[in-house]
Structures are given as C-alpha cells and as structure tokens.
Amino acid sequence: MKAEALSKMTNVEEVLETVAEFDREAHSFYTDLIPKVSKDIRYIVEELARAELEHIIKLRGLLASPNMRAHLKDAILRPVADRRFSDAIQAPELGDAPDDQEVLQYALAREQTAIEQYSELAANTPPGPMHEVFSYLANEESKHKSDLEALYYQIVHSGGV
Amino acid sequence: MSFEWIHVAYAALTLFIVINYGMIMTALVRKIGARVSGRYGIPIWQNYIDLAKNIALRSKVTHGAMFYLGPVFRLTGGVGLLLFVPTIYGSVMHQNFSYAGDLILALYFVFFGTLGMALGAGESGHPHAAIGVSRGLAQVTTAELPLALAVYALSLQYQTIDITEIVAAQQGSLFNWTLFTNPLATVAALFGLVGTMMRSPFDVVMAPQEIPIGPPTEYHSSYLALMQTNRVLFPVAKVVIFMNLFFGGATNWAEFAVKAFAIYMIPVLIGVVNPRFRVEQSIRFFLKWGLPVGILAIVTV
Amino acid sequence: MFSFQPDRSQYPDIGPDGKFEIDLETGKFLKLWQGPNHPGITGNMSVELTVNGDEVVEGKTHVGYLHRGFEKLMERRTFIQVFPIVCRVCVPEPDFNEYCYAAAVEELAGIETPEKAKWIRALILEMGRFNSYMMSIGGIGGALGNGIVGQWLTYVRDLMLDRFEELTGARIYHMFILPGGVRAGLPEGFEGRMEEVLATAERYLDDTEKLLFTNAVFKKRTKGVGYIDPALFESYGVTGPNARAGGVAKDVRKDSPYLVYDQLDFDVPVEHDSDIWARATVRYRDLRVTIDLLRQILAKMPKTGEVMTSLPNVLHWKIPRGETYIKGESSRGEYGYYLVTDGSGYPRRVNVRGPSYTHAMALLEHLIPGTNIADVAALMVSLHTYPPEIER
Amino acid sequence: MRELIEHLTPRYSLGAPVFQRPGLTFVDVKRDKLRALLLDLRDKHGFTHLVLLTAVDWLEEGRFQLTYLLNNRAADQTLGLRLYLDRANPMGDTIHDIWPTAATYQRELREMFGIAFPGSPRVDEEFILEGWTDMPPYRRDFDTLAYSQQTFVERGGRETHEPRATMKHKLYPEG
Amino acid sequence: MKDIDKSFKKDTETDFPLREEMRPRKVTTPDGQVIDIDPLQDYFCQEPPKVHRKSYSAIVEGFYNWARANSLWILGFGTGCGAIEMRPLMTPRFDAYRYGIQWRPTPRQSNLLVISGYLSVKTLKRAIRAYEQMPQPKYVVGLGSCTINGGMYWDSYNTIKKLDEYLPVDLYIAGCMPRPEALLAGLMDLKKLIRKGEAEGANRYAENFDWYKANQKSVIKDWDMPDYSW
Amino acid sequence: MGSLRDVLSPFTAWKHVIETPVTLKNPIGREAADRYRGFHQNDTEKCIGCGSCETICQNAAIDMVPVDDPKEGDSGLRPQIDYGRCCWCALCVDVCMTGSLTMSNEYTWVDTDPDAFRFIPGVDEKPWDAIAKGYQRPGERMLSGLTRPEMMEMEPEARIDNFDEIVAGYSREQAVLEADRCVECGLCVATCPVHMDIPDYIAAIREGDYDLGTQILYETNPFSEVCGRVCTHKCETVCAAQYEGEPIAIRWLKRHIIDNVSEERRLEIVGTPQVLPTGRKVAIVGAGPAGLTTAYDLARQGHAVTVYEAQDHAGGMMRYGIPEYRLPYDALDRDIAVIRAQGVEIKTGVRIGSDITLAQLKADNDAVVLGIGLHMGRSTRVPGSDAPGVEAAIDLLRRITAGEEVPVPKKVAVIGGGNVAMDIARSMARLQKQKYGAVGVTVTALEDFAHFLADKEEVTESIEEGIEILDARGPQEMVTFKSGKRKGEVKGLRTWKVISIFDDQGRFAPQYDEADEIVHEAEMVVEAIGQMADVSLLGDELTEALQWNRGRIAVDADGHTSEPWLWAGGDSVHGPDVIHAVADGHKLAASVSAMLAAKAEVAK
What we know:
heterohexamer, C: alpha+beta, Cytochrome-c3 Hydrogenase, chain B, three-stranded antiparallel beta sheet, 13 helices, about 45% helix, about 10% strand, E: alpha/beta, Rossmann fold, three-stranded parallel beta sheet, two-stranded antiparallel ribbon, 8 helices, 7 strands, about 35% helix
C-alpha cells in the first residue's frame, strides 16, 4: 500500500523538523493574512495563527524533553504523506480579501493534510514514545479540525429562522 | 396457741410469700385473659415494675387525712384478713394469728378494707369517687350476703368458728371437703367470691367505661402503690379463706399455690367472657340467686 | 318471685312540662360529666349528666372538642385541595366523605366516573362499613364490660386495614376516591387476600355471636334498654341501623341506589325492638351482609377498565354555580354532602350531614333521662356516633 | 316532582324550581310561607325526613340562604327549600316543634352564622365553640387563616421562594 | 388556596363575658363567716407546680427511671384523630401491654399524655387540665403532624399549631396519622429518653410555668370547666 | 329469662386461650404496603423546581428552597417538606409535572426536636431515599391536561396554492382549555428573551380579560401579534408541561389574546406617549423587530425617533424573510401601526451607506442604532454553487414578498434543514402549484430528523403539502448541464448520505457514506443554510474603528458598540430570532435613553 518507491529511511529529528517548518509557515501565513481580511472576520485568522503558534510551542516542548531526546536519532520510515505535507507548506491561493467561509475552508483543508500526515507517521513508528508522540499530534490536529468544523457549522450552517 | 414474738416474723414471712405469689399470680391471670383476646399480655413481672414506678412518682397530692388513710385501711383489711387466717394448715410458721374466733374476724376484715376505701375515696372530692363508693357499697353488701349465709351454714355444719378446725375437719379425703359435704354453702359462698372479686359481671363499680374506675379514681403514686399491694394481697387472702373453708385448705405451699390459683380462676373464668351487670341488676341477682342458695344451705345443714 | 318497684325511684318531681324538675341547690342532684376524657365515650365528646342516685335525670351532650372548622377550611381550598381534608371529617369511616364529596363535585362539574371506579368505590365503602361495624360491635362489648369482643374485632379490623393499605396506600385516611374516579386499581392477588380476611372475620364473628349475642348478661343489659319509639324516627332524623332496629327498613343503598348497589343482591336486615339489643343485632347482621357484599363486589367487578378520568387542570378548576346533595348509606345512617358552588375555584359552602349529628345530639339527649349511669355509655355506643362528624 | 312543585307554587308563591337531577329539586320560598309549607310537605306529601338545615352566606348579595333539605323516602325525592334572610339582621323561624332535631341545626346556625332563631331550645348556649368572642366563624368575611395567624403561634424558620422571582433575581436581575 | 384577607383583624376588644357564678365574690358560709371566693382562680391553676429534683443517688434515680420507662401508663384521652391508631396498640395485633404500656382512664394514674393529633382550643383546655393533674414525672408525646406545626389544620381558627407552646413535649411522631408501628417506635424512644433521665418535661413546665400559662391564656378565653371532667 | 345456653355459650371463648396469639412479634418497622404513602423522595435531577407541588399542597407543607443556581427550565429550587404540616395525601406526587416526586413506604420518624421534621427530599439524605416501594403515580399525571387542543388549520389541499394564513388561531373554548393546562410556574419567563409575563397573560385568557392580556403583552413586547405567530417560542422548550405531555401552546395563546382585541381597542389600551417630547433625536437603521422595538420604547419616552429602512416596507425580516402564509402582512402592519402611533417616523426605501451615509446620521442625531438584520444568504460553496439557477433562499423570499418575478421551475431542490429552508420550499411549492398545479420540491438537510433545526410543525406541514424532505444528506455538488443550450445551468444536486453529523462531543463533524449518492434532479437549487449580515454600510473606516466579536459588531451588555454614538442589536448581533431582536430592542432603548438622560443632565 505504501508507495515504497518514494520511501526511504529517515530519522525522527528530520521528520519533526519538517513538521515544525510546516507549522511555522502556516503561522506566518496566517499572520500575514490578518490585515488583509475585513476586521469583522479577522478573529478567525487570528485564532488560526494563535493555534499554529501554540502548536509550535508544544512541539518545541516535546523536542526539549529528555525523554524525547534519546529517540531523536531513531530511524523511521519516511512517510508517504510527507510529500503532501511539504506541498502544503506552500501557501495556496486565497484571494486578496477572502471572506470567513473561504478562510475556514482553507484551514480545514490544511488540517486534513496534517491529520493524515501524523497518522501515517504514527503508523510507521514502532510502538514506543515516538509512536505516542505522533499519535498525540494526529489527535491534536483532529481536535483542532473538529473545532474548526464546529465553527464552520456555526458560521455557515446557522440554519435560519 | 400462745403468742410468741417469733410469730410476728413468721407472719411477716407469710405476708411476703403471699404478696409475691399474688404479684405473680395476678399477672399470670392477666396473661391468661390476654390469651383469650389473642394477645401475649403483660410481662409476668409487670406488677413489680408498676409498683416501683408508682412509688417512684414524685408528686403526691393528698385530699386530707382520710384520703391518705383509705389505702392504709384497705391494706390493713388485706393484711388483717391474711394474718388471722391460717395460710398453710398444720404449719407452725404459716399458721399466723389464727385463733378460735377467726372466722368472724375474717368476715369483718373482708368488709373493713372496703369501708376504709369508701371513706378515703369519699374524701377525694371527686364525684366519680363519691358515686362509685355508694354504688360499690351497695353492691358489695349484697354480694357478701350469700357469703355470710354460707359461713353461717358452715359454722352450723362444723359447729365451730375456728377456721383451723374447719380445715382440720376437711382433711383426709377429697370428699371431706366442704365442697362435697355442703355444696350448697359452697355455691352460696362462691356467689360472694365472684361478686366481690371486682370482675365481670360484677365490676360495674370499677368499670372505666362508666364512672372511670370508680372510688380509686383520684389515687395515684404511693397511695396507689399501697392499693396495688392490697390488690394482689387481698384477693389471695380471700381465696385463702375459701380454700380453707370449702376446699380443704392447704398443707404446703405447692398445694396452696395450685388451690389458690384454681379458686382465683373461678371468677376469672366467668369474668373474662361476660359483660357486666348494672349495680341494681347485680343486687337483684344476688338477692334472687345468692340469697336463696345461702338460706337453703343453712336450711339443709 | 321478687317484685322490686318496676320503675326506679320517682324521686325527682315531674314538672308540668313532663320533665324532671331539677334544682341543684336542693342537694338531691349531682352534676356528673362523662368525657371528653372518658373511656366510655365514643371519641372526644362529653355528656353532662344530672344524676339522682345512679339514675340520670338529665343529660346534655357537649360537642366541639374536635371542631376544626372543616366547612370553613373547605371554603378556602380549591376543589382538589378539599379532597384530602374531607376524609378527616369522620375518622373511623372516612370513605363516605371521600365518596360523597367526589360525587358532588362530579355532578356539579359534569364529570363522568368510569364504571370500574364505581365498583372500586363501592368496594372501598363496604370495606369502610366493615371496619366501622367492627369498631361498633367491639365498642358495644367494651362499653358493657366485655373487652374480648373489642379485642378480637379490632384485630379483624386491623386485617382489613392491611387490605386498605394495600389497595389505597394508607391505613386510616385513604384519600383514594378522587373526583373523577379512584387513584388505582386492585393490586395483584387482592381478591385472595381479601377472602382470607373475610374468612377470619367470619370465624371471629361466629365466636362473637356465642360470646356476646347468646350471653345472658348481655341480653339482660341491653334488652329493653334505650328504647326509641319508631314514631320518633322522623322527627329526630333517625336513619340507618338505628332506624332499622326499630322496624323501619331505611337504607339509602336500597331506597335510592348509588354506585353499583342496584347490581348487587342483598337484603336489609331489620329488627323490631328498637332497643340497644336490637341495634347491636341489626349491626351484627348488617356486618354479615357487608361481608357478603364484599365478596359479590369482588366477583362482579369488571376486570379491566379505566379507574380515573383525566381532570381539567385542578390548579385552576372552576365549577359553575350550583348546589347539590349527595348521600350514601354509611354504617351509621344517611351520610350526605351538601355542596354549593358559585362559579369560582372554591366551594361556596360544603355542609356535611353526618348521621351522628342527629343521633348524638337531640336523640341522645332525649333518650338519656331516666336511664342508669351505667347505661349512658352503652346507649351512646349503641347509637354508634362518631363525634368528629358532629362538629366537623 | 314537577307536578308537586306546580301544585305548590301558587299556594306558597314558590320561586322557579331548579331540577338538579332526578330526585333532587331546589326551590326558593318566602319566609312567611315557610312554616305552612313545611307542615304541608311533611303531613300531606310524605316529606317526613328533615335531612339537614344549613345556611350559605352570600356575602356579595347581602343575604343568607337557609337550606331546608327534606326527603320523601317512599318516592325517593329530595326537596331543597331555599329561604333568603337579610344578612344585616338575620332572623329565622324555629322549626324545632316540627322536627325536634332541627334544634341542633339551629344552635349551630346561631353560633356559626349568627342567625337568630328565637324560641329554639338551648339556642343561645355555646354549642361547638367555647369562649368565642369574634364574629361567627362561618361568615364569609371571617378569614380563618388571618385569625389563626393572629391567634396561634406558628413554627418559624420557613421560607419559600417563587420560581419566577428566583429566576429573575438570579438570571436577569435588571431585565 | 385562597389568598389571605390581609384586612381581617381579629377581634381583640371583646372580652369573654364571665358568667355570674364565675365572678369573684363574697360568700357567707353556713357558720356565718364571710369569705372571698374567686372561682376562676382554681381554673387558672395560678399556683405553679413544684419543681421536683432528681434523687440524690444516681443509682436510685437510675432504678426509678428504669421502672418509669417500663411501666408507662397512658392516659386514655383521645384528643384527635390519632386516637384511632392507639386502639390497635391495646389489641392483639400490636399488644403494647407486653412492653409495659397500659392505659388508665384517669389522669391521676397516668404518666404519659399522648396528644393524639390536633387540639382544638376546647380540648386544649381539657388536655392542660389533664396534664396538670397527672403526677410527676409525666411525659407528653405529640402524635402526628398537627402537634408539630398545625398539620392539616394550619389555617383553622380553632386548633393550635405548636403543641410545645402550651405543654412541654418530650417527643414527636410525624405522620397523619402515624401508624401504630410508628407510635410504638416513638414510645420505645420515649422509654430510652426516660431511662437516660432526659424526659423532664414536668420540671420544664414548672420552671417555665408563667410562660406556658401566658401562652395558654392567649388562646383560651373561657376557663370555666368542671374540674373533674374525665 | 335467659336460657342455659345463654349462660354457657360465652364460655366457648375460652378456647382461644390455647391458641397462639396473633400478635406481631416485632411490629416496629414492619414494612408497609407497596403503595403506601410514606415519606417523600425526589429525583432532584428530574425535578425542575416548578413549584406545582407547593401550589397544590393544601397544608402549606411545601416550601421551595434554593439548592442550586437556576438555569433555563429549572428554577434551582427544590421542594422542602414540613412534616409538621404534611398529610400524605400525595397530591404533590399526582400533580408533579416531571414525575420526579414520589413517596417511599417508610413511615417512622420520631424526634424530640419539633423543628427537625423538615427536609428537602433528594437533597437531605434520608434512609428511605433508595426505597423503590411506595406511592408512585400510576401512569401519567391526571390532574392537568396532557395534550393541546387541536389547532384549526387549513387542509393541505386548500392551502398549497395560495399564501393565505394556515392556522386559524384558537377559539375561545380551545384557548381556555389550553390556558387551563398551565400550572403558572413561570419557568418560561426566564427563558423568554424579553421575559414576557407568560403565566399572567395565560391567566388573563382564563379569566377572559383580553384587555388585561393585551396590556401585559405590551409591557414587554410590541410585536405580540407577530410573535403570536412566528415566535421561536423558546418558552415552550422549558415548559413544565412538556415532561409528560405537550408543552403549553404559549405562542398560540399569545396570538389568541391579540386576535380578540380589535386594532382600535389595542391602540386605546397601548395609548400614546404620556411624556413631554425631550427634543432628543435618535436614528434607527433597519425597521426590523430590533429597530422598531427600540423606536417604540424610545418614542414612548418622548424622544424623536426616525427609522430608516432600505426596503419599501417596514418589518425587516419579519416581512421579507417570513412567508405570508405564516405571517400575514396585515398582522405585521397592525403591530407596526401601534408603533407608528407612538410618533415613530419610518422612512422606507432609504438605504444607508448609499442614500444617506452613516456619518450623516451620526451628525444629525444624538444616537444611532443599527438593527440591520441578516439579509445575505450563505452558500455551501460546493462545486457548481455559482452556476445559474442556484439561488439564495433569503434573496428569493425577499423577492417573492416584494412581488418581483421569480423563476418557478418544475423541480426545485432546497439545501438546508432550518425554518428558512422550509419557508422557501413551501413558498416555491405554492408558486409551483399555482403555475403547474403540482409540487416538485425536494429539501435536503444535513441533519437527521432527530436533530432537525426547523420546527416540527413546519416539517409536518411541508410534508403534508407534498414537499419531499430528505434528512441527513450532505450536498456535494450542483450538477450542471455539461453541454447544450443550457450548458452551465443547474440540472441537479448531488448529495451523499450523512452517517453521523456530530462527533461524540456533540460538535459538527459530518461523516458521509459515499456509496449512498443521490442526484436530485432540479432546475433550481436553493441554498438555505444560513444568513449573514451585510455590514458594507459601515464603510471601511468604521469597520476598522469598531470592535468586533467573532464576525459580529462587538457590543456590551446594553448593545452599545465601541463607538459612543452607535448602538447595534438584533439578528446581526445576536443571530436570527424575532423575539431576541425584540429583547435587544428593549435593551438598546434602555441604554440609549440612559445615555440621553445623562446628556440632558449634563446640559442642565
């Protein structure tokens, strides 16, 4: 099932680096976006940026933990989704003055990518602290996505009287 | 029989035994009555507790000297009755102060308590007591009439008024008992017994449903305790007379216990299952049935 | 053999109005109160006797010791709120209050009672009658000094109270007959347990008959005592067993059938002597009828069906202006509720017509003069009066 | 029943009858005709049983209603006679000579409603109440709760809350 | 429930008219003495009862209390509905006799006054009289909700609400009315109280006699009654 | 007299002496019957503290005491029972609206302290809390009605081809019957956004005093006639009657009052402002419920109020969002007439931002209030959602009301499960019926029927009218003609089955069953999934200057924005709901008026 052609061995540190990079990019993307959108929907973008920042901080904390350091050099299989992950780092098109719905749709797509990425990483990692880290990250992202979806539903599918 | 000081102690012992016997026996009889109702009834030692409780009560209201003396008289009646009647035939210890004329004295004591009670209750000032006394005296007097006649018949039959002698005459065989030698007198006397034991159908004087418990209505605390003591003593003392006069007396305590209980049960047997007569109905009953039997007993002697 | 004066002393003079002339100052008379704290009084009431010797020359009944102002209290309660308090009007047989009140409200509000509820109501009423008669016969025994009867029959009544409890959820105040029906149907296996009680009751009643009704002393005390002239029944409002003891077969169940009594098969026992004996006997025989009725009701009762109709919201239930009178045959006679409504949410007036009201007041006062003190309690018990329904 | 009422109406100038249900009829009577009517009903028409005698206070209308409930057992008919009395000075006519038991009812009415029945036995004696000095308690303007609160001590320490007010106080105090 | 008529004012002006024979007056005795009599003086029972101290010896008092607890004589005064549930106690089903509980027809011989339910003012007067006639130590049990806080008759013009305003109550049993079993349980609790020496209501009554009397007088206007009505 | 038998037979009683006594060995604590009415139990979770038990208790034995903070539909009070009063009649159990109050079969409670006989069942722990036996109400409550009277409605056949109002309103008998079911607990009052005195006006119906009823309505709600028809009736969701039956039809009862008062009488009852003009001027943008309520309140306080409305008629969403068959325009007009009678000037057809700028309003008035509503439809933005033939429901509804020509194809698909979706579906159905004599509307909703947003009666009525409602369908694509004359135009809607719409935490997370795919044939697809406010009138500068709160203008509790002269309220601030908008209106008016008073104070 795995696209073994593309896969090769890598180590944890590298993977995590990519992840961090992804988040950093996202954060700066959202931060840049803030002034572009109308003030009334700015809160969405601000929240997204804040979430990414939190994510970065969390990841850094993880990397710093002594328990993790021992495993940083563990070799793991490079995940298939890695490529898609890297792709997503590039900011897609989002118009000049996107409205709330567009921003949310964009963010949801990004989250979906992240979830898939982490899930695959977790699946490829043998049971151990690293596996738990990736599972945890996947879980974090899906929680985040759920939050966004709820927000989306609240804003867009408000029903009507 | 000459008087000796030791007899006082003996008499006290008799008194003690009889009181305790009465305490237990009356409780037992109440339990038996309760059984007929379908109940368990009071504990067998309930009489002791009640007595202790009544003594333990703190307030004592008196209505005058006679109110106080009433129960004393009544108890004196009971004690006197017992003390001048031989309790256990042939026993030196429990011969008490019986003497040649004790039958007369006994009859007197049977009345004495009632009179004392009447005086005491009368002084309590309660109309229930007053009415109770008048009704009670009227009824008791007629109830005693057949008893008096029976005793008269007995004294004619045995030619003595010494209870000990009468008992002696009945010894030997069951058929020497007055019950068999003079059944009419026995029946007449039993009229008296049933009539004076304050049980249905002749307890209208003490009935709670009409004039609530009649004469002793005002009595409480230690006065009542005194009366309670008498209430267990007096019936037994009375039963002792009947035992001696008609049922051959008792030669030991066991026989005493059985016989006294049996005689005591006679009014109980009747009382438990019958309603009570009105006073004038009781009087009429004794005059109509008791008196003729008594007279007949005398006539047939 | 002996002839005592047939009437007891004629000591008090008879005045021109046919009554005794009583002057307490003469000292010939004594005032004697019976009650309210008195074991011979059927409940909390009192009789003020004037005695001469132990003959009573005048008796006045005094009531009000149990007065709670029910009829006033009902006026400030809504129609449903009246329901819990009506039963308290008569302690030993509360169900007639519940039935009469419910029926009166139903009539004025135009509510239909379900068929099954009617049967259960009749069942409850007969159970109540059973208890009431048990108390009454036990009370007669007790008043005349035969406590055993009272003990036995109170025990039987206790058994019936267990059935009451099982059916209604309460022992004394059942609060079961709501306007609109009854609270619930019969519990599982009720008939069987009821039959046990009835069988026990019959056994005890057989014993009671031997103990009380074939008892020379009892006969002596009751026959010819407390005679009520049947001619006076109407003027003194005598109903129920008291009238039936005098040969008048008055019974609302027959005269004006309510609930399901027209579907039941029963005779009304009648005695003719109109004295204490007759009154006790007629109750005893009526009790036997009641036992039979209980069996009939349980057998004929429909097995299924609603027991309660849905009511309008009782919190603001208003009943149009009107008045009605509902009566039933209680164990003591005609029991009735006179209900007046004025269109508001509260009854305008509720008047309870308890049979004791006439029996214990005017009638008792009429009967007492000339009797013996000892008979006063018996007389009262034989009239079977319950003070709470006099003063309410 | 209808025939009887029709028969009696002209003679005793009865009011319009109310046929509450078969067997129960109410009709208004005038005070001066009451006695004759009662006697007539009792002696000629079989209404021998006085079921009850009571009063209803129509405070708003300023009158008392006396209800005489008579029963004819043979015909299973009950007839309620309604007699109105002026509330300001209520005075009824005693019928204790017709039905002795009425004396009790009249005593009660005297005490509970303050309706006078001159000539009725023991009518002015205390009946149910004792030491009563207030207005007759069954009158509508007598408030039993108020009287009870002013007379009898209640156990304190109870306080209730109204759901609506509580919620207002807690949830939207200024709204 | 109908609203209370706030404007209603109880008539506090009218005094109960004292009957002629109840008024204080001078009477000439048969032997010519002139004495003052005040009939109501007796009815009011102005004289406070004596406070009876416990026995000096704890053992004696303990024994006494044991006896008192095991010989409870109840005054057979059914003041209200609850009386009907006292009857089963005397009868086979419950048979309270086996617990040393008995019924006496006169207050003089009773130790326990069971206020069986509500007390109308008229009965309260009799209950007080009965209570005062009982010998010390005496106990009062409030049977049913009516004795606790008025119960069903909380708005009645003729019933009291708090029994402890008028009599010293040792124990309350909730219920309307309490079943015989509950009453029996209450009596068992009372026994325990007595045995512990805590049922000193009579002394409480004596110590606070003025307070009790004031309360009683505030509801009872007519104190005239035969002093032996039981 | 008396035979020997009479003398001897009594002695047979002695046979009992050998029988075992029938006495209970240990009577204390003997278990009572299963149905015995003993001490109370209360399931405090189920209890809502409505106080019906207290009301019915004829002994005044029950007090409602606070045990918890109140929340919607729960007063936080719980019954405390005084066993110094209780008579164990169990009416409280019978009347209990939720069935939480029951009784155990425990009956012994002895205490030396008379004050001890009180407790809160379920809160104060008692030994009998867990006893299952005891009195429980058999079945549902019988002491108050369970069901509403049937509302007279037009039959589907009669109503489907016209826009006549469907429901007839209650008759007097029905209204009394329904009003009778109310237990007057007042739990609804807190939930009602304007806190209408619901129990009071229901009581007024019972008493037949419609004038009083109208007066009570107008104390809190100038749109009573509108609300009597289209209110979201949050009150009914907390109604105590709903637990074992249907909630009280509070909305219909409100309507019943207004229906029974003529317009003239209504004007008389409400009257006109009884104060002197203050000379202060307030401009209100948007003649919807929020704006007009503000105007009504302010005008009654003597301020000069002008309402600017972009559309041709006042009423806002009430007119343009709600179809006529639900809310006839003359009903709305009557409500507005009362408001106009207070001296409120309503300028219609004036669009702020283009006709007059906000800045100008600011300059001319002491205060400006925004009540602009949600007039822009949301789009799903699935592929094809910009194709011709895809319409926004809100826009379509407006056009229908304004009398503009709208395309009426034979087949219409509606996306959305809310009331707007129902409104547009039913409106289109009517137009279809008029045009073709047949209805061809399919509603696809994301939610399943259990979680439907639209009112139940809306859904039932729609189905009655021949509208197909498919629940749990997620829109995936608007299918368009790929070729031909109509290339690019919509020809259908492709949806997937929704397996679950919420995750286990109750948040939106639709899971689709891709296999269950349907293409709904339709020439018009109407998106009715939600609305948003058109805030363009604010202009960039003001938008930038204002504080915002999650896409909406940030206001404080009183509706005051971050600009001192500007207030905002209604749907655009608090979401779509007439009654909320009215509540907002009151708040705004209070705040504005307080500010004006302060200003006047300063001026003095």
